[in-house]
Amino acid sequence: MKQEYDAIVIGAGAIGTSVAYHLARAGYQTAVLDRGDIASGSSSHCDAVALICDKLPGIDTKMGQASIDYFGELARTFDYDFEYCPKGCLYICETQPEFDAAENYCRKQQADGYAMRMIGHDELCAMEPHIAKDLTGALFTPESGSVAVSPYKLCFAFVEEGKKYGLESYTYCTIQKINLDPDTNAVRSLETNYGTFHTKRIINCAGAWASFVGRMTGLDIPIEPRKGTNLVSEQTGRLCNHKILEYGYMLSKFDSIHFKRNVSRLVEEQNIAFNLEYTNACNLLVGGNRLFRGYDTRTEIETMRAICERAVRFYPELADIKCIRAYSGVRPFVRDHLPIVSDVDSIPGYYIAAGHEGDGICFSPITGKFMEQIISGKPTDFDISRLDFARFSSGAAAKGA
Amino acid sequence: MLYRDVCIVGAGPAGLAAAIEAGKAGASVLLVDLNMRPGGQLFKQIHKFFGSSAHHSGTRGCTIGRQLLKEALDSGVEIWLQSTVIGFFPGNKIGIERGADHTEKQIVTVTAKKVIIATGATENAIRFEGWTAPGVMGAGAAQTMINVNHVRPGNKVVMLGSGNVGLIVSYQLMQAGCEVAALVEAAPKIGGYAVHAAKIRRAGVPILLRHTIVAAVKDPDGCVCGCNIAAVDDHFRPVPGTEETIDCDTITIAAGLKPTMDLVKLAGCALTFNPAFGGYVPLHSRRMETSRAGFFVAGDTTGVEEANTALEEGRIAGISAAEDLGLLSSREAGLMRGEIWTRLDSLRFGPFGLRRKTEKERILQAFESEIGTPQALS
Question: Cys staple from A24: which of A165, A179, A210, A339, with CB 3.0 to 4.6 Å?
């Protein structure tokens, strides 16, 4: 065990392990700490796809596409297999108004040069033989903008590949205190149950728990936990050929858009947005919802019921397939739906990479790359000033900008 | 949504006894069991019980089962059969899958103030080549087939394990018309009571000590048609050159039981590992309450023993649940529990029983030192 590191990453989820890998690769003596195990938080309680078609046009999509492209490069160069699998995605539209909204979105993304297109009822039924027959159509995103990975294997891949560059990891590590320089307020050391680590740089990658780490040095990081639930089916035949989501997912994700679906009160209350994917092990993952329940990650039976109700509406055969398990996790929610990838003006050597609600897996490669560029004082691949932590002190996010 | 004071999972001796006590005290009780009939293992125990007259000696298990069932129904207990508890959820909610396999199943949510988990035990498996072939099964499964369903598992059986289950089931298989070709035991001496062993010896069953099964022999359809056994050395390793084949169509494994912990784990109760009781068991108090307030345990779930201890523990759990519901005063409940603990001590006696008494004390003490007061979750 070393006493001194160039950089210490707090949090060993998809974001933290990626940041740690990129720093180690760039030559920094790096350690990644977690109060649990690697991938024991949100990164093992989520689904497994990286998409561009669930991002808002603009920087959101730009980061998504850059990250998806980068996933391919990592899959080719990593020895550790994280089950990278390009897999097209269908955003299904239940009604004509949904289809119109999706088409409008699609046109904007096409104008920005992204590969996606609208498909009608017949083509949808041909692509997805088991889907309900009364749907209007779908937004189709090909494999260039939609890939699947194993989220927990991804975290382990970053750690194992990082070890080749000297990365060290400390699991079940609790931070007791973060010490700052009394004169400059710069990062000095961390006191943990493993002892004191001296370092000039810490990167807060604690996701939904980033605000707790922030408070240790008096920082107010406006990230809240937002709960989600997935059901796991028994092993079964190939029910779907793509990652499937309902267009209403967008509506629940970006709650600034108001759109009334024709759904039951239970589905509405539980804020359900159907999504479905098949896994390598031939189970189906069926989701999902977004609810504010603090840090309580117990699965709720009403949520399970509501997910089932909505899932059977789109794939009637799911009614005959058994659910074997359900799990819930928390996503790091930020009011303006953009992550924080930034340094912190008030504390030299303090960095934040957190708040990737629902996009942590997707954005992890590019976030790690950006964070290394920020720390090294290099220009980032493209302008990410909107992800700056300073946006909260200016009150911009509060105004909903 | 259905509301009940107490929901009890498992309608074996522990669950039935708990239901009777809680029901008699005035609680509304829902008893849930995944089997087609209540009674747990009692209805397959066609033999007479040993022990003191206070504990049903000379009475057959199935008779005790019928008495308990009647008493439970008389106490107003509601019983859902072919129903499976699928989870415990926030707000004291319990998800129950209700309905027979051949009918439309339904998920019902029940809100219960107290939960008693009495899910019993699960048979241990022994792995050897071919152990998953049709014809290889647990001794308890074979016993259910003959005594409950009246179906013979096969004609010629090799039994592995000479504990009481292996001995008794061997005898019952013979009563059902099976031939028991051999009883194989890796240890140098018989595990169960001499009286049971003598019975099957008299009937001419060879008991092969210091032997084990190395493989199931399969016919062209993949079903069991024989059993390869071998002598074992002092480290239970097969001795080369001692293999022989016994003709049989059924291999039954009586390798002990482990507590069925799925629901205890789902409820988040603190556990401890106890080899004498068969593996992981929930820490619990003398009131049979776990580390999670309002969640009680009883019977083999708390450590593998036998029907009488399960019954007594079930009574304690039912009394404690009723006490926490305000249906019994602390004094009344305390007195009742005191009497039952005295009876439990008399059951945990003799060479096997004393060890269980010591281990039970260890678990109770660990609860006091590590948990103290059970914690509530909303």
Answer: A165
Longest C-alpha distance within chain B, in Å?
Answer: 68
In this prediction, the answer to ipTM > 0.85 reads no
A305 touches chain B (CB under 8 A): yes
pTM as predicted: 0.85
Phi, psi of A310, rounded to the nearest 5 degrees: -70, -40
Interface of B with A in 92-131 (CB under 8 A): 93, 95, 107, 109
A261 and A369 in contact (C-beta within 8 Å)?
no
Chain B residues in contact with A296 (beta carbon < 8 A): 90
Q: Residue for token digits 């009403």? A: A302
- In angstroms, rounded to a whole number, what is the distance separating the alpha carbons of residues B370 and B296? 17
The answer to whether the CB of A326 falls within 8 A of the CB of A347 is no
CB contact (8 A) between residue A299 and residue B87: yes
B87 to chain A: which residues are within 8 Å by CB? 299, 301, 326
Q: Using CB atoms, which residue from B89, B95, B107 is nearest to A298? A: B89
> B87 in contact with A at a CB cutoff of 8 Å?
yes
* Confidence at residue B148, expressed as pLDDT on a 0 to 100 scale: 85
Q: Report the alpha-carbon distance of residue B16 to residue B27 in Å, rounded.
A: 14
**Selection from B217, B124, B202, B213 nearest residue B167 by Cα:** B202
pLDDT, position B44: 74
Inform me whether the pLDDT recorded for A398 exceeds 50.
Answer: no
Give the chain B residue whose CA is nearest to the CA of A301. Answer: B89
pLDDT average, residue stretch B371-376: 93
Interchain contact A260–B (C-beta under 8 A) = no
Query: Given CB atoms, is A200 within the 8 Å cutoff of chain B?
Result: no
Touching check for A299 and chain B: CB below 8 Å? yes
Of the pLDDT bands very low, low, confident and very high (cuts 50, 70, 90), residue A104 is very high
Residues A42-99 have pLDDT tens digits of: 999 998 889 998 888 889 999 999 999 999 999 999 999 999 999 999 999 999 988 9
Contact B87 A300 (CB under 8 A): no
What single-letter amino acid sits at A161?
E
Phi-psi region of A349 (alpha: psi -120 to 50; beta: other; left: phi over 0): left
Tell me the mean pLDDT in the region B260-281: 96
Please name each of the domains of chain A with its CATH number.
4-45+152-223+336-400 (3.50.50.60), 96-141+224-333 (3.30.9.10)
Residue corresponding to tokens 């092990």 = A281
Q: Shortest Cα distance from A50 to chain B (angstroms)?
A: 31
A309 interfaces chain B, CB cutoff of 8 Å = no
pLDDT tens figures, A297-329: 999 999 999 999 999 999 999 999 999 999 999
B261 vs B278: CA distance, rounded Å: 11
Q: Which of A346-350, B33-37, B100-104, B159-163 shows the lowest per-residue confidence on average (mean pLDDT)?
A: B100-104
